[in-house]
Amino acid sequence: MTNSISEIERADVILVTGSNTTEMHPVIGSFVKRAVRQRGAKLIVVDPRRIPLVNYADLWLAPKPGTDIAWINGMIHVILEEGLEDKQYIQERTEGFEALKECVEAYTPERVEKITGIPSELLIEAARIYAKAPAASILYAMGITQHTKGTDNVKALANLAMCCGNVGIANAGVNPLRGQNNVQGACDMGGLPNVFSGYQPVGDPQVREKMAKAWGVSRLPEGPGLTLMEMIQGALDGKIKGMFIMGENPMISDPDLHHVEEALRRLDFLVVQDIFLTETGRLAHVVLPGASFAEKDGTFTNTERRVQRVRKAVDPPGQARQDWEIICDLSSRMGMAMSYESPEEIMEEIRAVTPSYGGITYSRIEKVGLQWPCPTLDHPGTPFLHKDRFTRGRGLFHPVEYRPEPEEPDEEFPLYLSTGRILYHYHGGSMTRRSVGLVERAPACEVEISPEDAEKLGIGDGNRVRIRSRRGQIEAVARVTDKAVEGTVFVPFHFAEAAANLLTHSHLDPISKIPGYKVCAVRVEPA
Amino acid sequence: MDTVRLVIDGKEVTTAAGNTILMAARQAKIHIPTLCYHPRLPVSGACRVCVVEVEGRPALVASCAMPVAEGMVVHTKTERVLRARRLVVDLLLASGDHNCLLCQSNGSCELQDLAYELGIESFRFPVDSPGYPKDTSNAMIERDLNKCILCGRCVRACNEVQVNEVIDFGYRGGKAKIVTAWDLPYGESECVFCGECVSVCPTGALTERQAKFKARPWKLQKVRTTCAYCGVGCQLELNVAEGQVVKVTSDYRYGPPNFGSLCVKGRFGYDFIHHPERLKTPLVREKDSFREASWDEALELVAKKFSEIRSRYGADALAGLTSAKCTNEENYLFQKFFRAVLGTNNVDHCARL
Predict the structure, then answer these.
(1) A482 in contact with chain B, both atoms CB, cutoff 8 A
(2) What is the pLDDT of residues A246-271, one digit of tens each?
(3) Angle at A43 between CA A37 and CA A45, to 5 degrees
């Protein structure tokens, strides 16, 4: 997030898109609802589903899945047309505006209506509300990013925010809500193929030299490594022979699962470290028992870049060990001694080699976490980014064009399928599906279908249905609900026995390599 | 900032204009008991337990709701004040089934504490419990409205903090109770089980069902940590008894990001921690099944196989997925292991999923 969670409550306008906030980030959802009910903030929801936040919204725009760039460019078109942009901000803090202006020229409300299905008057009203706000906050999540054009979607939102001077000020910003407790931290720590911790590029010789020195090795690999999806492909092609998977379950969370299983089976050697024997673990040659969050010390970094303490409350079961201890042990057996007394000692090393974490120590975050960038011990942390200047100096507009989806509904597969999470479950389900209360609320996979589609297909609420795509099929229980709009069904991906990702395609965004989970074509029929 | 000077129990107090008498008293470390008041919630001034005497005013005033004024002279412990508080608590004790012996909240109940503080030794009025059936409609929250004192904290928590708008006061007079829409049990209502209501309930009316009979409140050790579900990073407390996590709570005083609020997963989704299916030993594949192995055997095997693959096919034939569930320290070490020890940048995680 460019800004902080608390700031959402003070925004004048909140635009939520591709985020079912009250179910996926319920506590942030409350900040939004309080802003609306108690401070009179205006709420615009742009989502193909009638998510619960729509009940609190001033405006609900329901675009056809996969048409985000069109409505975002359309909003910018209206803003420029009516002269509502922040001219001074554009002049002083940005560059590339002319190219953006040229690009959005063609996105008239009428054309956008044809592409997205959003009535032009609603688009115009949304543009006016957003542009006139002193501080408007954009919240988004995987509904924006998990597309074959996810990167472009994000750029389009950044264009919109910069046009109206909403980046680099309090209570505004472009705010991705991250889905996993420490997905921010895993990125920050260099759990990515192209960067070390703090996003220091592996391709930069000076950085490599610094890291090699800190780690006491003579050299470090130069070229960027493979992304997850490329690793799977590499395993299929026989180029990847061995894998080490720690606390991840690609056998549920990755697209086109048949493909993933085949890839993992082809490996000469697979090691899985986890707290349960997951679907992925069953394919392993060696399984290592790790510790849950309740059994370890350390830190997580949340979606607003706040580094917070994790504290050990109980012992791991049996012989299970804290994950950091296992890595140290393995490393020592492979010739490089890693010996740390405690996670605190590891953090001391992290902050020595990671400029944005330079000022973060356990004693400073004992009571309240610090938000990076926090480069020095006397730095108070950074509640919002890009104040006065962007990282690169001026904010650059990236004009992006709408492109159709790789797979659109047709006669054989007439419905859009969108996948995601529900309130009561989490990711691959290995935690929540072992929780009595949560399982009671959501025991099985339900497909959300609109009353109109259900009637056409002769499907009643609670009926068992089969959902088929070009790649596979699953069975689920039909939930006939107004939450789904005609033409689109929604299936959560938590349920291994009805794995939504048997249906999804593995077309990726060309830059981020994210799979397009939010749009594919399916057929639904009574089972 | 404008300040106001007043006298509370003979002590001169300076506080910000707009503050209530209760806030001023707390700043000056003068204790005034409360019941319906909760620092995280809007003021309602309903229970009258916090009444005080203000010179020049004929009636007692609710200190939680009364703003300070220049020159105000306040008395918090006169016999008149104490008598009024006792009457309130005596009436509450008679209004329901306040049998501490059989109550899950014994030892963490504000009504119980208040009766003790006010020196109440017996029931002054005949007890007339409404006799509502317990709401055991779900596995997470148990509701026993016979222990409800209608302080309204849960209503404000649901409507003003979480803004879920599920519960409110229903019916009238002696029949008044807290209701969901159509007065349905929680399990059949629109409730999303965030448990904010449980967290502010001063008595045993709302309790965590799974924590029942697991440990007395005074046996619990609370360990503050960060939630393991979504990216909000809520601060919570694992309540531990005899090496087991038996309950999850939070505290508004922890501040950002969640100011004491949690969601259903964070508050009630903790039973995976002690689940019998947890992996307890390393496993090594033998044909189509696994056998248990020692750490030495398992790690030696991993080291040997990784070394073999590396020398035969090169380091880039190895790849690793680190974890968005693990700590920063673990992720840092994992990528360090891949880059510095194995010698490849093939390291990623499920950021995109």
Answers:
(1) no
(2) 998 888 777 777 888 999 999 999 99
(3) 130
- From A371, A386, A404, give the residue that closes a domain: A371
B-interface mutation test, from A181, A338, A357, A421, most B Cβ less than 10 A away: A181
Q: What percent of chain B has pLDDT over 70?
A: 99
List where CATH 3.10.20.740 sits in chain B. Answer: 3-77
Tokens of A184: 């921010």
Indicate the number of domains in chain A: 3
Band (A427; pLDDT cuts 50, 70, 90): confident
For residue A407, tell me if it sits in a domain: no
Q: How far apart are CA A225 and CA A230, in angstroms?
A: 9
Tokens 């891949």 belong to: B338
Closest CA to B266 of B258, B274, B275: B258
Prediction ipTM score: 0.95
List the beta strands (DSSP E) in A302-392. Answer: 306-310, 370-371
Q: Are residues A172 and A193 in the same domain?
A: no
The answer to whether the beta carbons of residues A115 and A402 sit under 8 Å apart is yes
Q: Do B347 and A228 touch (CB under 8 A)?
A: no
Interchain pair B256, A437: CB under 8 A: no
CA closest to A177 among chain B residues = B231
Last residue within a domain, chosen from A177, A208, A232: A177
Query: Residue A515 carries which DSSP code?
Result: B
pLDDT band at B353 (very low <50, low <70, confident <90, very high): low
What per-residue confidence (pLDDT) applies to A255? Answer: 73
Both A170 and A187 in one domain: the answer is no
Task: Return the CATH architecture of domain B3-77.
Answer: Roll (3.10)
- Residue A459's domain is classified under what CATH number? 2.40.40.20
How many percent of chain A have pLDDT more than 90?
Answer: 87
Side chain identity, residue A199? Y
Contact B232 A440 (CB under 8 A): no
- Asked if A243 and B320 come within 8 Å (Cβ–Cβ), the reply is yes
Instruction: Report how far residue A419's alpha carbon sits from residue B199's, in angstroms, rounded to the nearest whole number.
Output: 33
With respect to residue A400, please indicate whether it lies within any of the assigned structural domains. Answer: no
**Separation between Cα atoms, residue A356 and residue A198, nearest integer Å:** 6
Q: Is B215 on the interface with A (CB under 8 A)?
A: no
CB contact under 8 A, A231 and B272: no
Q: What is the pLDDT of residues A195-248, one digit of tens each?
A: 999 999 999 999 999 999 999 999 999 999 999 989 999 999 999 999 999 998
DSSP code per residue over B72-138 = -EEESS-HHHHHHHHHHHHHHHHTS---GGG-TTTTS-HHHHHHHHTT--S-SS------PPPB--S
Q: Quick one: A110 and A244 in the same domain?
A: no
- Concatenate the DSSP letters of all residues of A33-88 into one string: HHHHHHH--EEEEE-SS--GGGGG-SEEE-PPTT-HHHHHHHHHHHHHHTT-S-HH
- CATH of residue A22: 3.40.228.10
The verdict on A77 and A218 lying in the same domain is no
